[in-house]
Every structure is written in structure tokens, then in C-alpha cells.
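dumping this here so i dont lose it
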């Protein structure tokens, strides 16, 4: 009876959209609420421009669900929160294959973690290195340079340590300003940040955006399971999966607007990939990333490129 009573009431979603109530994320979620009515939920949306506050309000019971970056969502579901791990998915077809797999009913048990359930995953875009001075053209030259890292992501801090960079903590609302104003030399961001956050100012005419995905960033909808009908999460995941191509079109349009968007120098691509893999293995051993997700993403990579050396070892 308690469960039935709880799901008959309107549910509140806390929604992180850096652009606020009129932003693109809020706009897409308004369409989602219309579909959710058919699944037995009456959703209200509350926008947040600070995702830390959105996460804290969700934990405090101020809302029944929250839409966050995958990195921030890791605290609620380590499995899906590990999608955004360093170098784990090299391209968008790999991410699409993964999200397709996770949207299937057979994967539903993995989408729950304690009181929480991941009820949707959307691509936010590959994360790239934004560099103010293109003479910093390889990993070795990042040693000693100031690198913006998200203060809540232990993985980014460990990566900075690994390459000998000086980690400068920031959050999603401050990292672009620090990059543009020269407080940091290097930042990691998706292409969709280039125009809205004016990161072209930091790149200028002397910088570069390295065309090599450091991670595949996502937005994830996390629900408190007892606040929703039993089958709601699966229906929601199917809905989000169906939005993948629309979201990707927006991402590609944003990436097409980037000037000075170049691949790493010849011979450095494999060095970057190997470095990211070693970091990923270490971070998994330390418990930052979920081993099950690492194994699943390796299967995706090897399905895309079975000839790669990692496909014949058992390290992930």
C-alpha cells in the first residue's frame, strides 16, 4: 500500500542544465514528461545550474529523480557511472552499441544499485583536450602544466598525477572560465562546451583541441526506485535509447564548429591509447571504476576492432 501511494503522487525530477530553465536539456526533458504519463508517472521538473546541488537535493529527498553527468552519477550507480571512464570507448558507434545493450530488458538488474536505478543514458559528447598553446603537443609536454580537473572525480585527479601535470580543481560551472582566463593551460571538455562556454576564447589562435576522445561523457537519469511504478525504469531506458541519434546530431554540429580541431601528431595516437588504458586498469583496481562495466566496454571495443592487441589478453 505504501508503494502504491507513493507512485500515485507527482514525482519531482531535479535536472542539471548549465543553461538553466530555458536550456536544451530542460527542453528535451519536457518532451520526456509527456511520454512518462503513459508509464504511470506525473513528472515535474526543477532546473539546476549547479549539478552538485542537484545531487545533494536528490540525496536529501527533495526530488525523486535527478539528471546528472555520468561522473557525478557514479555515486548512485557505479556500473553505469563508469561509462565515462578514461579512454574506454573510442568513438560514437561504440557508445551507441553500449547504450543499446544497456537498454535491453536483460540488462535491467545491472541498472539498479541499492535504492537507485539508472533510467536513461544520453550522450553528452566525447571529451577532448583543450590546450591554450599547441606547442604542448604530446603527453610528455603536459608535465608541470596546469590541468583543470573536476573536484569530485578522483579519476581525473589521478590522471593529472600520472602525467605529472599540476591539478587545478574546478567544477562544471567554473572550469571553462579558468581555461579562458589562463588559470589553467589544459582542460578536458566535450565539443558542446566550445561555443556556449566560449572556450574558443581560451583556444584563441595559438591553441588546439586534440581530436582524440579522452572519454565518452554521458547524462544519466537516476531514480529512487520506490517513487516510480515497477516497469517505469525499463520503459524510460528504451525512450532515452531512442533519442541517441538526435542527441548525437547536436553533438556533431557542435564539434563541426571547432576551429583548430586536429588529431594528435603522427605516432602519438597509440601512446595516448596505451596511457589511458594503463590508467583505466589502475583506477579499476583502486575501486574507482566498476569492473563489470570495464569488461563490458572491452567487449564492445573488441567487437568493433577484434584485431587489437588488448582483445587477446585478460587485463580488463
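and the seq i came up w/
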Amino acid at each position: 500500500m505504501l508503494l502504491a501511494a507513493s507512485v500515485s503522487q507527482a514525482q519531482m525530477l531535479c535536472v542539471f542544465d548549465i543553461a538553466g530553465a530555458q536550456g536544451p536539456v530542460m527542453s528535451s526533458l519536457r518532451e520526456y514528461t509527456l511520454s512518462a504519463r503513459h508509464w504511470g508517472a506525473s513528472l515535474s521538473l526543477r532546473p539546476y545550474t549547479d549539478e552538485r546541488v542537484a545531487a545533494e537535493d536528490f540525496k536529501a529527498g527533495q526530488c525523486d529523480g535527478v539528471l546528472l553527468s555520468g561522473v557525478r552519477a557514479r555515486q548512485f550507480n557505479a556500473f553505469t557511472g563508469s561509462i565515462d571512464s578514461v579512454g574506454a570507448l573510442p568513438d560514437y558507434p561504440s557508445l551507441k552499441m553500449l547504450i543499446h545493450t544497456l537498454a535491453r530488458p536483460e540488462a535491467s538488474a545491472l541498472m539498479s544499485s541499492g535504492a537507485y536505478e539508472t533510467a536513461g543514458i544520453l550522450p553528452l559528447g566525447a571529451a577532448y583536450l583543450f590546450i591554450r598553446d599547441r606547442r604542448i603537443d604530446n603527453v610528455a609536454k603536459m608535465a608541470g602544466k596546469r590541468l583543470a580537473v573536476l573536484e569530485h572525480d578522483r579519476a581525473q585527479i589521478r590522471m593529472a598525477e600520472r602525467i605529472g601535470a599540476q591539478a587545478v580543481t574546478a567544477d562544471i560551472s567554473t572550469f571553462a572560465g579558468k581555461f579562458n582566463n589562463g588559470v589553467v593551460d589544459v582542460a578536458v571538455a566535450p565539443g558542446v562546451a566550445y561555443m556556449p562556454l566560449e572556450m574558443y576564447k581560451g583556444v584563441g589562435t595559438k591553441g588546439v583541441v586534440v581530436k582524440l576522445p579522452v572519454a565518452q561523457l554521458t547524462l544519466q537519469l537516476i531514480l529512487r526506485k520506490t517513487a516510480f511504478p515497477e516497469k517505469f525504469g525499463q520503459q524510460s531506458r528504451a525512450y532515452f535509447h531512442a533519442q541517441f541519434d538526435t542527441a548525437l546530431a547536436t553533438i556533431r554540429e557542435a564539434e563541426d564548429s571547432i576551429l583548430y580541431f586536429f588529431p594528435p601528431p603522427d605516432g602519438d595516437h597509440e601512446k595516448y591509447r596505451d596511457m589511458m588504458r594503463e590508467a583505466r586498469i589502475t583506477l579499476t583496481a583502486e575501486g574507482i571504476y566498476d569492473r563489470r562495466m570495464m569488461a563490458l566496454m572491452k567487449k564492445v571495443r573488441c567487437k568493433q576492432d577484434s584485431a587489437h592487441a588488448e582483445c587477446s589478453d585478460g587485463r580488463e
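Residues 1-7 have pLDDT under 50 and may be disordered.
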